[in-house]
Amino acid sequence: MLTNHDAFARAAAVIPGGVSSPVRAYGSVGGDPRFLESARGPYVVDVEGREYVDLVASWGPAILGHAHPEVVDAVQRAAARGLSFGAPTVAEVELAEEIVRRVPVVERLRLVSTGTEATMTAVRLARGITHRPLVVKFAGCYHGHSDGLLAAAGSGVATAGLPGSAGVTEATAGETLVLPYNDLDAVQAAFSAHGHRIAAVITEAQPANMGVVPSLPDFNGELRRITAAHGALLIWDEVLTGFRVGPSGWWGIEAASPAGLPGWAWAPDLVTFGKVVGGGLPVAAVGGPAAVMEHLAPLGPVYQAGTLSGNPVAVAAGLTTLRLADDAVYRRLDEVADTLRAEVHAALDRAGVPHRVQHAGNLFSVFWGERAAEDGVLTYTQAKAQDTASYTRFFHAMLDAGVALPPSAFEAWFVTAAHDDTAVTRILDALPAAADAAARA
Ligand code: PMP
């Protein structure tokens, strides 16, 4: 039988680090990554035939659980009609219509293949519209791996403890202003000093790539006020939150509580989507009001393109996923997340492990250590101060018990609507021993 260890060794001989994306390598928790062979519902199965309850969900897309039969069927039917045309299709129009229906601030959108492309295009649009060079991002927010957005990024960059990345020129890095999250004074100061040169502020609608760090009340609203006052665009990155935290993503949650601003006065100029919007295949999108989006080629001067953009097989997965993601799905996602948050917290308390569970909608993560427990985590600096060694012990105890968590303390935990009571019970049963393991320094 091929073991995970053998598979990893073989992979490392031909693929840098043995993985196609860094955080899969278990770099911060150690050990052999599980090489997966199949996945169904809330479970994944590795090459050794071991089944795990999955709390990674492909890093977000699998809100219906893995390999939902109707999604698989739609993909198979689309594949039989042709894998890629390089021409427009009605299905991509239907997907665009579904997104526009759910997020009305999006009047026009362009389909791309990855979240990285979506945010890269959003930034280019902002620069093309404003004719300004600078972009403000927040430390700990991850917007994909385009050069300018890697500065002080979360996700794998946080996990590896890298300051940014080699290979990014100083000139490019110099066009990104990195500010502490949740710090409006810093935003005001940046705009006072450079306002006439700032094209856009890009922010995760709710940061979930340094662990989950919710925005302070009206942080997003103030970003809107400040950017509007200076003629800069506001970009919400909903690659992770979009269509996961609710039927309209974080947009819908913020719309329900407009933080003191009337109408859509808080609304961003551009929104990026990924993950759920492709239902597990490569689809992402950038959208916004028509007046903004019509700066894109072929209507406008801002160029953007993709051979596989709007790929018919990928679109079938995304469209079917969104059509199936009804209120019952979101209720179940919230229910499972609420239960896990409460039970993880209780188990860690019982074991005497200092921690803080933070959440934004159904996205949550645990910050480890006294400091996080006492003060909570509002910034990347605070997130990085957590005790990752506790998480490593917790992670491996859960894995040994058949529960696959994200292999980094800086990632959100992802539930699916397929996490039925059996799957949830398996997670809960694993918690006491894992909490004890976390407690053993
Ligand atoms: N933005 C956010 C908020 C993300 O979480 C991610 C991926 N985790 C991206 C952008 C990049 O998406 P992709 O990996 O599809 O390029």
From TrEMBL:
Domain of life the protein comes from: Bacteria
**Which coenzymes or cofactors are required?**
pyridoxal 5'-phosphate
- According to the UniProt entry, the coiled-coil residues are none
- Localization per record: Cytoplasm
Pathway(s) per entry: Porphyrin-containing compound metabolism; protoporphyrin-IX biosynthesis; 5-aminolevulinate from L-glutamyl-tRNA(Glu): step 2/2
* Reactions the enzyme catalyzes: (S)-4-amino-5-oxopentanoate = 5-aminolevulinate
Recorded hits in Gene3D superfamilies, A to Z, give: Aspartate Aminotransferase, domain 1, Type I PLP-dependent aspartate aminotransferase-like (Major domain)
Q: Look up keyword Membrane and say if it applies.
A: no
Q: Enumerate the GO terms in the molecular function aspect.
A: glutamate-1-semialdehyde 2,1-aminomutase activity
Chain positions found as N6-(pyridoxal phosphate)lysine: K275
InterPro entries this protein is in? Answer: 4pyrrol_synth_GluAld_NH2Trfase, Aminotrans_3, PyrdxlP-dep_Trfase, PyrdxlP-dep_Trfase_major, PyrdxlP-dep_Trfase_small
Cytoplasm as a keyword?
A: yes
Q: Which SUPFAM superfamilies match?
A: PLP-dependent transferases (SSF53383)
Q: Which CDD domains match?
A: OAT_like
EC number(s) stated in the UniProt entry for this protein? 5.4.3.8
Keywords tagged on the record? Cytoplasm, Isomerase, Porphyrin biosynthesis, Pyridoxal phosphate
Chief localization class? cytoplasm
The record's similarity note reads:
Belongs to the class-III pyridoxal-phosphate-dependent aminotransferase family. HemL subfamily.
Q: How does it assemble?
A: Homodimer.
Q: What is this protein called?
A: Glutamate-1-semialdehyde 2,1-aminomutase
Query: What is the organism of origin for this protein?
Result: Actinotalea lenta
